[in-house]
Protein backbone atom coordinates (compact mmCIF):
# COMPACT_ATOMS: atom_id res chain seq x y z
CA UNK A 1 0.00 0.00 0.00
CA UNK A 2 2.91 2.32 0.86
CA UNK A 3 4.56 1.69 -2.54
CA UNK A 4 1.23 2.28 -4.32
CA UNK A 5 0.81 5.64 -2.58
CA UNK A 6 4.37 6.69 -3.48
CA UNK A 7 3.97 5.70 -7.13
CA UNK A 8 0.66 7.58 -7.34
CA UNK A 9 2.39 10.63 -5.86
CA UNK A 10 5.09 10.59 -8.55
CA UNK A 11 2.42 10.22 -11.24
CA UNK A 12 0.54 13.16 -9.73
CA UNK A 13 3.67 15.37 -9.52
CA UNK A 14 4.58 14.55 -13.14
CA UNK A 15 1.05 15.09 -14.53
CA UNK A 16 -0.27 17.96 -12.39
CA UNK A 17 2.86 19.56 -10.89
CA UNK A 18 3.42 20.30 -7.19
CA UNK A 19 0.58 22.84 -7.01
CA UNK A 20 -1.86 20.37 -8.59
CA UNK A 21 -0.87 17.52 -6.25
CA UNK A 22 -3.09 16.88 -3.23
CA UNK A 23 -3.33 14.01 -0.74
CA UNK A 24 -6.97 13.51 -1.81
CA UNK A 25 -6.01 13.12 -5.47
CA UNK A 26 -3.13 10.76 -4.60
CA UNK A 27 -5.42 8.53 -2.46
CA UNK A 28 -7.86 8.37 -5.37
CA UNK A 29 -5.20 7.45 -7.98
CA UNK A 30 -3.67 4.87 -5.63
CA UNK A 31 -7.09 3.42 -4.76
CA UNK A 32 -6.28 3.76 -1.06
CA UNK A 33 -8.67 5.09 1.61
CA UNK A 34 -8.06 8.60 2.99
CA UNK A 35 -7.63 7.09 6.47
CA UNK A 36 -4.95 4.64 5.36
CA UNK A 37 -3.16 7.40 3.40
CA UNK A 38 -3.17 9.75 6.42
CA UNK A 39 -1.86 6.92 8.59
CA UNK A 40 1.18 6.39 6.33
CA UNK A 41 1.76 10.06 5.37
CA UNK A 42 0.04 12.68 7.56
CA UNK A 43 0.82 15.65 5.25
CA UNK A 44 1.35 16.42 1.56
CA UNK A 45 4.99 17.30 2.31
CA UNK A 46 5.58 13.90 3.97
CA UNK A 47 4.12 12.23 0.92
CA UNK A 48 6.03 14.09 -1.81
CA UNK A 49 9.40 13.93 -0.04
CA UNK A 50 8.98 10.17 0.64
CA UNK A 51 7.96 9.60 -3.00
CA UNK A 52 11.04 11.33 -4.44
CA UNK A 53 13.31 9.54 -1.95
CA UNK A 54 11.70 6.19 -2.86
CA UNK A 55 12.25 6.82 -6.57
CA UNK A 56 15.83 7.96 -5.98
CA UNK A 57 16.59 4.70 -4.11
CA UNK A 58 15.16 2.73 -7.04
CA UNK A 59 17.24 4.67 -9.59
CA UNK A 60 20.42 4.26 -7.52
CA UNK A 61 19.85 0.48 -7.47
CA UNK A 62 19.29 0.55 -11.26
CA UNK A 63 22.64 2.30 -11.73
CA UNK A 64 24.32 -0.44 -9.69
CA UNK A 65 22.80 -2.99 -12.06
CA UNK A 66 23.61 -0.95 -15.20
CA UNK A 67 27.27 -0.89 -14.13
CA UNK A 68 27.61 -4.52 -15.28
CA UNK A 69 26.26 -3.83 -18.79
CA UNK A 70 28.50 -0.87 -19.64
CA UNK A 71 31.29 -1.42 -22.18
CA UNK A 72 34.87 -1.33 -20.93
CA UNK A 73 37.41 0.84 -22.75
CA UNK A 74 36.35 2.72 -25.90
CA UNK A 75 32.75 3.89 -25.85
CA UNK A 76 32.40 3.61 -22.08
CA UNK A 77 32.28 7.36 -21.39
CA UNK A 78 29.51 7.89 -23.95
CA UNK A 79 27.58 4.91 -22.56
CA UNK A 80 27.88 6.30 -19.01
CA UNK A 81 26.63 9.72 -20.20
CA UNK A 82 23.71 7.95 -21.90
CA UNK A 83 22.81 6.11 -18.69
CA UNK A 84 23.00 9.32 -16.65
CA UNK A 85 20.96 11.19 -19.28
CA UNK A 86 18.17 8.60 -18.88
CA UNK A 87 17.94 9.64 -15.26
CA UNK A 88 17.56 13.38 -16.01
CA UNK A 89 14.80 12.66 -18.52
CA UNK A 90 12.94 10.24 -16.22
CA UNK A 91 9.90 10.85 -13.96
CA UNK A 92 12.37 10.98 -11.04
CA UNK A 93 13.98 14.15 -12.39
CA UNK A 94 10.61 15.72 -13.24
CA UNK A 95 9.17 14.97 -9.79
CA UNK A 96 12.35 16.18 -8.05
CA UNK A 97 12.34 19.38 -10.15
CA UNK A 98 8.76 20.08 -9.07
CA UNK A 99 9.84 19.69 -5.43
CA UNK A 100 13.04 21.74 -5.67
CA UNK A 101 11.19 24.63 -7.37
CA UNK A 102 8.23 24.54 -4.96
CA UNK A 103 10.64 24.41 -1.98
CA UNK A 104 12.23 27.68 -3.13
CA UNK A 105 9.22 29.65 -1.90
CA UNK A 106 7.89 27.29 0.82
CA UNK A 107 9.97 27.22 4.01
CA UNK A 108 8.39 24.09 5.48
CA UNK A 109 8.90 22.12 2.28
CA UNK A 110 12.46 23.48 2.00
CA UNK A 111 13.31 22.09 5.47
CA UNK A 112 12.34 18.59 4.25
CA UNK A 113 13.72 18.91 0.70
CA UNK A 114 17.15 20.46 1.39
CA UNK A 115 18.62 17.34 3.12
CA UNK A 116 17.17 15.11 0.37
CA UNK A 117 18.68 17.32 -2.33
CA UNK A 118 22.12 17.12 -0.66
CA UNK A 119 21.83 13.34 -0.22
CA UNK A 120 20.73 12.64 -3.82
CA UNK A 121 23.33 15.09 -5.17
CA UNK A 122 26.14 13.29 -3.31
CA UNK A 123 24.75 9.89 -4.25
CA UNK A 124 24.68 10.75 -7.95
CA UNK A 125 28.18 12.19 -7.76
CA UNK A 126 29.46 8.92 -6.27
CA UNK A 127 27.62 6.92 -8.94
CA UNK A 128 29.13 9.08 -11.72
CA UNK A 129 32.67 8.66 -10.29
CA UNK A 130 32.18 4.87 -10.08
CA UNK A 131 30.74 4.57 -13.59
CA UNK A 132 33.37 6.82 -15.17
CA UNK A 133 36.11 5.00 -13.19
CA UNK A 134 38.03 8.21 -12.52
CA UNK A 135 40.43 9.17 -9.75
CA UNK A 136 39.10 12.23 -7.92
CA UNK A 137 42.36 12.85 -6.10
CA UNK A 138 43.83 14.21 -9.36
CA UNK A 139 43.33 18.00 -9.49
CA UNK A 140 40.44 19.07 -11.70
CA UNK A 141 38.80 15.64 -11.97
CA UNK A 142 36.23 16.31 -9.25
CA UNK A 143 35.22 19.55 -10.96
CA UNK A 144 34.87 17.79 -14.34
CA UNK A 145 32.55 15.18 -12.79
CA UNK A 146 30.52 17.95 -11.12
CA UNK A 147 30.36 19.86 -14.41
CA UNK A 148 29.14 16.68 -16.14
CA UNK A 149 26.31 16.31 -13.61
CA UNK A 150 25.38 19.99 -13.84
CA UNK A 151 25.40 19.74 -17.63
CA UNK A 152 23.05 16.75 -17.34
CA UNK A 153 20.72 18.69 -15.00
CA UNK A 154 20.67 21.50 -17.57
CA UNK A 155 19.82 18.96 -20.27
CA UNK A 156 17.07 17.57 -18.03
CA UNK A 157 15.63 21.06 -17.65
CA UNK A 158 15.81 21.64 -21.42
CA UNK A 159 13.80 18.45 -21.94
CA UNK A 160 10.87 19.42 -19.72
CA UNK A 161 9.02 21.56 -22.28
CA UNK A 162 9.50 19.20 -25.23
CA UNK A 163 11.52 16.33 -26.66
CA UNK A 164 15.16 17.49 -26.76
CA UNK A 165 16.66 14.06 -27.48
CA UNK A 166 18.37 14.81 -30.82
CA UNK A 167 20.13 17.95 -29.58
CA UNK A 168 21.04 16.15 -26.33
CA UNK A 169 22.61 13.20 -28.21
CA UNK A 170 24.84 15.55 -30.24
CA UNK A 171 25.94 17.42 -27.13
CA UNK A 172 26.74 14.20 -25.27
CA UNK A 173 28.68 12.79 -28.27
CA UNK A 174 30.87 15.89 -28.15
CA UNK A 175 31.09 15.91 -24.36
CA UNK A 176 32.23 12.25 -24.24
CA UNK A 177 35.16 13.10 -26.54
CA UNK A 178 35.99 16.23 -24.55
CA UNK A 179 35.82 14.38 -21.24
CA UNK A 180 38.11 11.58 -22.46
CA UNK A 181 40.68 14.08 -23.76
CA UNK A 182 40.51 16.18 -20.60
CA UNK A 183 40.82 13.22 -18.23
CA UNK A 184 43.94 12.14 -20.15
CA UNK A 185 45.26 15.72 -19.98
CA UNK A 186 44.67 15.91 -16.20
CA UNK A 187 46.10 12.41 -15.65
CA UNK B 1 2.99 51.90 -15.22
CA UNK B 2 3.61 48.93 -17.55
CA UNK B 3 7.22 48.62 -16.35
CA UNK B 4 6.10 48.86 -12.71
CA UNK B 5 3.62 46.00 -13.25
CA UNK B 6 6.27 43.84 -14.93
CA UNK B 7 8.83 44.45 -12.18
CA UNK B 8 6.24 43.64 -9.50
CA UNK B 9 5.43 40.41 -11.37
CA UNK B 10 9.09 39.31 -11.33
CA UNK B 11 9.32 40.13 -7.62
CA UNK B 12 6.16 38.10 -7.03
CA UNK B 13 7.42 35.10 -9.07
CA UNK B 14 10.76 35.15 -7.23
CA UNK B 15 9.24 35.53 -3.74
CA UNK B 16 6.05 33.48 -3.98
CA UNK B 17 6.56 31.22 -7.02
CA UNK B 18 4.18 30.81 -9.94
CA UNK B 19 1.43 29.26 -7.79
CA UNK B 20 1.65 32.14 -5.29
CA UNK B 21 1.53 34.84 -7.99
CA UNK B 22 -1.82 36.47 -8.69
CA UNK B 23 -2.85 39.54 -10.64
CA UNK B 24 -4.37 40.96 -7.42
CA UNK B 25 -1.08 40.60 -5.54
CA UNK B 26 0.91 42.09 -8.44
CA UNK B 27 -1.42 45.14 -8.64
CA UNK B 28 -0.95 45.63 -4.91
CA UNK B 29 2.87 45.40 -5.00
CA UNK B 30 3.00 47.71 -8.06
CA UNK B 31 0.58 50.18 -6.48
CA UNK B 32 -1.54 50.09 -9.64
CA UNK B 33 -5.35 49.87 -9.72
CA UNK B 34 -6.92 46.53 -10.69
CA UNK B 35 -8.62 48.26 -13.61
CA UNK B 36 -5.37 49.63 -15.00
CA UNK B 37 -3.67 46.28 -14.51
CA UNK B 38 -6.45 44.42 -16.34
CA UNK B 39 -6.28 46.98 -19.15
CA UNK B 40 -2.55 46.30 -19.72
CA UNK B 41 -2.59 42.53 -19.01
CA UNK B 42 -6.00 40.83 -19.03
CA UNK B 43 -4.77 37.51 -17.57
CA UNK B 44 -2.10 36.16 -15.21
CA UNK B 45 -0.50 34.34 -18.15
CA UNK B 46 -0.24 37.58 -20.17
CA UNK B 47 1.41 39.23 -17.19
CA UNK B 48 4.01 36.55 -16.34
CA UNK B 49 5.04 35.94 -19.96
CA UNK B 50 5.41 39.68 -20.62
CA UNK B 51 7.43 40.07 -17.39
CA UNK B 52 9.95 37.33 -18.28
CA UNK B 53 10.25 38.66 -21.86
CA UNK B 54 10.82 42.19 -20.51
CA UNK B 55 13.56 40.96 -18.17
CA UNK B 56 15.14 38.89 -20.95
CA UNK B 57 15.33 41.99 -23.19
CA UNK B 58 17.01 43.90 -20.37
CA UNK B 59 19.57 41.11 -19.75
CA UNK B 60 20.34 40.82 -23.47
CA UNK B 61 21.07 44.56 -23.60
CA UNK B 62 23.31 44.21 -20.52
CA UNK B 63 25.30 41.48 -22.29
CA UNK B 64 25.81 43.83 -25.24
CA UNK B 65 27.21 46.41 -22.84
CA UNK B 66 29.31 43.82 -20.91
CA UNK B 67 30.96 42.83 -24.20
CA UNK B 68 33.05 46.02 -24.06
CA UNK B 69 34.42 45.33 -20.54
CA UNK B 70 35.58 41.76 -21.13
CA UNK B 71 39.34 41.13 -21.33
CA UNK B 72 40.81 40.12 -24.69
CA UNK B 73 43.07 37.06 -24.86
CA UNK B 74 43.99 35.22 -21.67
CA UNK B 75 41.25 35.17 -19.06
CA UNK B 76 38.49 36.04 -21.54
CA UNK B 77 36.81 32.63 -21.48
CA UNK B 78 36.61 32.62 -17.67
CA UNK B 79 35.28 36.20 -17.67
CA UNK B 80 32.59 35.26 -20.24
CA UNK B 81 31.57 32.26 -18.10
CA UNK B 82 31.35 34.57 -15.08
CA UNK B 83 29.11 37.00 -16.97
CA UNK B 84 26.84 34.17 -18.16
CA UNK B 85 26.76 32.69 -14.63
CA UNK B 86 25.45 36.00 -13.31
CA UNK B 87 22.47 35.57 -15.61
CA UNK B 88 21.62 32.06 -14.34
CA UNK B 89 21.76 33.23 -10.72
CA UNK B 90 19.67 36.35 -11.36
CA UNK B 91 15.93 36.96 -10.80
CA UNK B 92 15.50 36.47 -14.57
CA UNK B 93 16.55 32.82 -14.32
CA UNK B 94 14.44 32.23 -11.19
CA UNK B 95 11.33 33.80 -12.73
CA UNK B 96 11.86 31.92 -16.02
CA UNK B 97 12.36 28.64 -14.12
CA UNK B 98 9.04 29.18 -12.32
CA UNK B 99 7.34 29.69 -15.70
CA UNK B 100 9.01 26.75 -17.49
CA UNK B 101 8.11 24.37 -14.64
CA UNK B 102 4.52 25.62 -14.31
CA UNK B 103 4.08 25.39 -18.11
CA UNK B 104 4.95 21.68 -17.99
CA UNK B 105 1.54 20.87 -16.53
CA UNK B 106 -0.51 23.85 -17.84
CA UNK B 107 -1.34 23.68 -21.55
CA UNK B 108 -2.48 27.29 -21.88
CA UNK B 109 0.68 28.61 -20.23
CA UNK B 110 2.81 26.24 -22.33
CA UNK B 111 1.36 27.71 -25.53
CA UNK B 112 2.62 31.16 -24.45
CA UNK B 113 5.88 30.03 -22.85
CA UNK B 114 7.19 27.62 -25.51
CA UNK B 115 7.90 30.33 -28.14
CA UNK B 116 9.51 32.54 -25.47
CA UNK B 117 11.71 29.65 -24.32
CA UNK B 118 12.87 29.01 -27.92
CA UNK B 119 13.51 32.73 -28.49
CA UNK B 120 15.48 33.27 -25.28
CA UNK B 121 17.40 30.00 -25.81
CA UNK B 122 18.48 31.09 -29.30
CA UNK B 123 19.24 34.62 -28.10
CA UNK B 124 21.50 33.36 -25.32
CA UNK B 125 23.24 30.98 -27.69
CA UNK B 126 24.02 33.87 -30.06
CA UNK B 127 25.25 35.98 -27.13
CA UNK B 128 27.53 33.14 -25.93
CA UNK B 129 28.98 32.67 -29.44
CA UNK B 130 29.65 36.41 -29.73
CA UNK B 131 31.22 36.71 -26.29
CA UNK B 132 33.38 33.59 -26.70
CA UNK B 133 34.34 34.73 -30.24
CA UNK B 134 34.19 31.21 -31.64
CA UNK B 135 33.54 29.92 -35.15
CA UNK B 136 30.50 27.66 -35.12
CA UNK B 137 31.18 26.32 -38.62
CA UNK B 138 33.99 24.19 -37.14
CA UNK B 139 32.61 20.74 -36.22
CA UNK B 140 31.94 20.30 -32.52
CA UNK B 141 32.09 24.01 -31.63
CA UNK B 142 28.32 24.49 -31.69
CA UNK B 143 27.88 21.50 -29.36
CA UNK B 144 30.49 22.86 -26.95
CA UNK B 145 28.70 26.21 -26.76
CA UNK B 146 25.39 24.42 -26.19
CA UNK B 147 27.00 22.25 -23.49
CA UNK B 148 28.31 25.42 -21.83
CA UNK B 149 24.82 26.92 -21.73
CA UNK B 150 23.25 23.68 -20.45
CA UNK B 151 25.97 23.49 -17.79
CA UNK B 152 25.10 27.04 -16.76
CA UNK B 153 21.39 26.17 -16.57
CA UNK B 154 22.31 23.21 -14.35
CA UNK B 155 24.37 25.55 -12.16
CA UNK B 156 21.43 27.95 -12.03
CA UNK B 157 19.18 25.13 -10.85
CA UNK B 158 21.75 24.06 -8.23
CA UNK B 159 21.73 27.62 -6.89
CA UNK B 160 17.98 27.86 -6.30
CA UNK B 161 17.91 26.06 -2.93
CA UNK B 162 20.98 27.76 -1.46
CA UNK B 163 24.16 29.71 -2.21
CA UNK B 164 26.27 27.51 -4.50
CA UNK B 165 28.79 30.22 -5.47
CA UNK B 166 32.00 28.57 -4.19
CA UNK B 167 31.35 25.23 -5.89
CA UNK B 168 30.23 27.09 -9.05
CA UNK B 169 33.44 29.14 -9.19
CA UNK B 170 35.61 25.99 -9.01
CA UNK B 171 33.58 24.28 -11.73
CA UNK B 172 33.79 27.32 -14.02
CA UNK B 173 37.56 27.66 -13.44
CA UNK B 174 37.94 24.10 -14.69
CA UNK B 175 35.40 24.55 -17.50
CA UNK B 176 37.24 27.63 -18.83
CA UNK B 177 40.47 25.61 -19.13
CA UNK B 178 38.65 22.69 -20.74
CA UNK B 179 36.89 24.97 -23.20
CA UNK B 180 40.11 26.73 -24.24
CA UNK B 181 41.93 23.43 -24.78
CA UNK B 182 39.02 21.89 -26.70
CA UNK B 183 38.50 24.91 -28.93
CA UNK B 184 42.19 24.74 -29.84
CA UNK B 185 41.86 20.97 -30.45
CA UNK B 186 38.78 21.42 -32.68
CA UNK B 187 40.38 24.34 -34.54
UniProtKB/TrEMBL annotation, chains A, B:
Q: Entry's InterPro entries?
A: Homeodomain-like_sf (IPR009057), HTH-type_TetR-like_transc_reg (IPR050109), HTH_TetR (IPR001647)
Q: Which UniProt keywords apply?
A: DNA-binding
According to the entry, DNA is bound by residues in 22-41
Q: Which Gene3D superfamilies match?
A: Tetracycline Repressor, domain 2
GO terms (molecular function) for this protein are:
DNA-binding transcription factor activity; transcription cis-regulatory region binding
Record domain HTH tetR-type: where: 1-59
One Pfam family of this protein, by short name?
A: TetR_N
Q: Which SUPFAM superfamilies match?
A: Homeodomain-like
Q: What is the name listed in the Swiss-Prot or TrEMBL entry for this protein? A: TetR family transcriptional regulator
Give the organism the record lists. Nocardioides jejuensis
Amino acid sequence: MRARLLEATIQCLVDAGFAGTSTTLVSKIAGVSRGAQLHHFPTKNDLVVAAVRHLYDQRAAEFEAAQRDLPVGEGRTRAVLGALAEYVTSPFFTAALELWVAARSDEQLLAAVAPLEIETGRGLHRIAVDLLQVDETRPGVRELVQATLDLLRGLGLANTLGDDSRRRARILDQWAQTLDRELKELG
